[in-house]
Structures are given as C-alpha cells and as structure tokens.
Amino acid sequence: MADTARTVAHPPQPDTPKSRSPALVFVGIAYTFVVVMMGTTMPAPEYALYEAKFAFSVFVVTIIFAMYAVGVLGALLAFGRWSDTLGRRPLLLAGIAAGIASGVVFVFADSLTALLIGRVLSGISAGIFVGTATVTLIELAPAKWQGRAPSVATAANIGGLGLGPLLAGILVQYLPDPLQLIYIVHVVLLLGAGLVVVFAPETVAVSPGARPSLKWLSVPPPVRGDFVRASVAGFAGFTVMGLFSAISPGFVSGVLDIGNHAVTGAVVFVVFASSAVAQIALGGQKYLTAQRAGCVVLAVGVAVLALSLLASSLPILILAAIVCGTGQGIIFRNGMASITRELPQHGRADVTSAFFVVVYVAISLPVIGAGAVAAQWGLITAGVVFSCLVGILAAAAFVLLTVESRRLQRIDQTEES
User: Could you state, in order of their start, the residue ranges of all structural domains in the chain?
Assistant: First the structure.
C-alpha cells in the first residue's frame, strides 16, 4: 500500500517558541533516546533473581532476554518508515508509551508469560523509537554540531543500553523491592522523556490526510553495498553486546561466585560505555578504514573474552568488555554514517530502521543459541564457542571491507592517471 500523501522533511523553524534553544532541544532528545534504550537492558542484573524465584534454567533466561527481538523486529518492520509520513514526534511518543507499558507489566510480573510480554513490549518501544530518534537528532542538531550528530545518536543509543544495567544493578543490590523498583524508576524517567518530546519541534512537514505506508523496509541501490558491509560487521559487534548482556550475569554470579548485582550491572555497563566513548572519541577517519580497524579490535576483544572465561577471571573479563565495546563502537558509528551520508532526509528513517533490524537480531537471537549450548555444556563452553564464531564473522567483515577499499583505490588511481 502506497503513501496517500507526500511529506518533505525540513529543519525546525528558528522563530517558533519551541525551537528558541536548538542546543537544549538536541540535548533533550538525546536524553529521551538514552532513557528509552535503558529499558531494554535494565533486567540484566535481575536474571539471577528470576532464576531463583521461578526456578528458570539458563536457557529460559536467554529466551526472556531475546524475546524483545520479537517486539523490535515487529515494530521496525511495521512502523520503521512511518515517521517520514506521520512526523517524528508521534512515533517518539508511541515508543515512550510502549516503554511505560513494559515497565508496568514488569512491576506486576508473577510468571514467565508476564516476563515475556514485558520483554516484547520493551522491544516494541525500542523498535519504534530507535530509527526515529536517530534521524530526529540528526535533523535537530545545531549547525555547529551537525558533524557530530550521527555519533551522538549512536552514542545515546549504546549509552542507554549500558546505563540500564548499571542503574538497575545498584538499585537491586542496595535498595528494597528489587523486582519492582527499577521499573518504577524507569517509568518516571520515561514520563519526563515524554514531556521533552511534547515540547520539541517537529522536523517533518505532514500533509493533511497523510497515511503511513505498510510497505517493506527497503535500501536504495546506491547504498546497498555499504549496507551489506556495515551489516556484517555490525552483526558481529552486536552479537558480542548480546552475549555480555545475557551471559555475563550468570558467569559473574554462577562461575565467579560474586553475588553483588551492582558488579554484574557494572560489567555489562563497561562494554556499552566503551562503545559509546569510542563512537564519540574515535571519529574523523574514513568509513571503510575505521570499520576495518573496528573489526580487528573486535576480534582481539573476543579472544580476550574467551581467555577470561577459561581463566575464570573478572579483571580479564572487564578488559574484554573494554576492548569488545571499543571495537563494536567503531564499527557501529562508521557503519551507520556510511549508509546515511548520501541519503535525503525523507529516506533516512527507512534505511536506519532496516539497519537496526540487522543489529537487533544480532543482539538477541544468537544469545538463544548460546543459552542452548550453556544449558548442555555450561556457560564457559558457550561463551568460548560464540567468541570464536564472532571472531570468524569479524574476519569476514574485514575481508569485505578490504575488497571495497582496494576497489576504490584502483578507481582513484585510474582517475589520477
């Protein structure tokens, strides 16, 4: 079904009351991005509690973690391009509403079914929000920040994923009602995020009677090569993030025998924080060169991760989190930039949503396989096996990026001669 009205993206008008402080609006939307993404990883320190309360196996815990992929994929595929038609603000508010609904379900969850529903709603929230928030930040960035806007968007995304388990781990460890409090706090933060969105300017001019398209997401031919290369590398990077989120809590508590939930949350935080820092601090390189470097760093990181598991060492695990997060951050930041740099504003939401379909499959579904292996042969074996698989995938991405880099070099040499 085609759109019934054409929309044109445009920057917010500077003379409107809502846009008197572009910098403040930009920071506010970045805050909402962080808060929404926090909700997808906040349960990480609680998985051990769910195991104890409901007698879940490691495999069931990974199923709970990965179920939000169902919501993410459904939302991205169904609503990924709607903000180009309906406007950014309505979709941002819908994502926040889904996050609030998820928090309410978790507060009253008393069964596996409720936990699964809560995770699906969390996925819907992220799926609606992530692509729309990314392009909104790019469009709302003040002129002096335009070059950094994609980095800020991806850092807000990853930073939120990291802050979720850190905050949750502290609340679970040191405050009462661990299975309810973190979600109550998150709902309050989401309400504040909703107010920010309400007062933010709209960046899309919506024609009266415009209706959203239900067409599949698509990637324009000019960026398909970049999209494939970025997706292979991004899949490897986000698989590692999923492993740290779902497997490391069980490893810290079960293998290392560390019962402090704040430590569990901190380990997950380190990998995401390293990614966010890398995205902001390590910019300015050519996209292909940077992605290749990220693949090398990621391969080294998963080797260190395997070593940490075999040695049952928390310090080495933290080092692995830093290296893996850095590699993933370089890959993600430059992969996103490579597929959006040539696109017009009205096509960005479609392509960014398609890219997020890939990376959120990576952060969720491979974890189910890791959980199945862990249930049969233990967490250490599962972690080592999947570290090796990620290393192989990172190597494949490196080859693809190298081939393209050399092709472009030959073209440049031909033109110069």
Answer: 14-207+220-416
Whether 275 and 298 have beta carbons less than 8 Å apart is answered as no
Model's pTM, two decimal places?
0.81
Superfamily name with CATH number, domain 14-207+220-416: MFS general substrate transporter like domains (1.20.1250.20)
Q: How far apart are CA 214 and CA 336, in angstroms?
A: 24
From the list 106, 130, 121, the residue with the least C-alpha distance to 68 is 121
What are phi and psi for residue 109, nearest 5 degrees?
-65, 130
Per-residue model confidence as pLDDT tens for the chain (417 residues): 334 443 444 444 433 444 458 888 899 999 999 999 999 889 888 887 888 888 888 788 888 888 888 898 888 777 766 776 777 889 999 999 999 999 999 999 989 999 999 999 999 999 888 888 988 888 888 888 877 787 788 788 888 989 999 999 999 999 999 899 999 999 999 999 999 999 888 877 766 666 666 666 677 777 788 889 999 999 999 999 988 887 788 788 878 888 888 998 999 999 999 998 998 887 666 888 899 999 999 999 999 999 999 999 999 999 999 999 999 999 988 888 888 776 666 666 678 778 888 887 888 788 888 888 888 888 899 999 999 999 999 999 999 999 988 887 777 777 666
